[in-house]
Amino acid sequence: MGDCIMAAWALTGLRQTLPESQITWAVQDRFAPVIDRSRLVDRVVYGDTLKWKSHRWAPTTWANQLRMFAGLRKERFDVAFDLQGQAKTSLCLKLCGAKKRFATHGYDKFANRLNPTVDCLLGSVHEVEATWRLLSQWHECQIPQRPYMPPSNNKPNGQIVIQTGSGHPHKKLSQERWAQVARQLISDGYEVTAIGGANDDEIPVEGITNHVGSISLERSLDLVANCKLHVSADTGTAHAASAYGIPTVTIFGRTDPRRYQPYGSISTVLRVGPDPNDVTAHEICQAINERLGGRSSASSLAD
User: Fold this and answer.
1) CATH says 159-291 is which class?
2) Could you give the residue range(s) of every CATH 3.40.50.2000 domain in the chain?
3) Which CATH superfamily is domain 2-135 in?
4) Comparing 109-123, 135-149, 181-195, which segment has the lowest mean pLDDT?
5) Contact 123/199 with Cβ under 8 angstroms?
6) Structural contact between residues 78 and 98, judged by C-beta atoms closer than 8 angstroms
7) Fewer CB within 10 Å, N- or C-terminus of the chain?
8) SS3 of 175, please?
């Protein structure tokens, strides 16, 4: 999900530069809710990538992928971009039949041989900037102040939203660390809501609203788009919050925040070592209060 949202920044710039263009986005079906289909793109093509991964070498998987990729040829694209450099995305780019193709450097030799690659400084600049460099190879555009995101109809809820999960176990904070943070925030007078997927941890703290594993991605996005602040490990909803203009406090471990932190000027990043739990609850609460313009009252917090 985070990759889609980071790509939306530069793609919004291209859309604003060429408002009459027809844009199609091929994406994993489970991440479709983060794509604005009213302003950003004209069509979304979905791939059941979870099923593909679980049956990676099955003949039917390859047949379905090739059928989907080759079916894009009827669109007669003028230009196509591969933003990920993976084998399946490189194959999609090759088979779509676009007159011009641009790809970021791939993760393997197979991907790099299929399409013309561009040095976007991938790995040394933020992913948003790398995507912008790729799109600018075809047409000059600017990174916007905010990307186009699916509209939210809800009103500001005044809550701090904690996303307890992350895309990989080494990125996650422990349940106990989140409980320490939640208790202090509630003590400071904040309303706190927890969100996450079906396999993520709830926060066992009295006074918190727990939606972990119980609401859809669309509903989670609504909560994020209307909250006071979003706090999490390195995960997709942090990118969504920043895209909606919501301040973020994000705790990093092994991954490089220079590449993957929520994009924009309203992001606070905390990183001490390879384990995100090296960041204390006191440090997290202090960063939250500072980001919200207040003074931390968490000085006596026991970690």
Assistant:
1) alpha beta
2) 2-135, 159-291
3) Glycogen Phosphorylase B; (3.40.50.2000)
4) 109-123
5) no
6) yes
7) C
8) helix
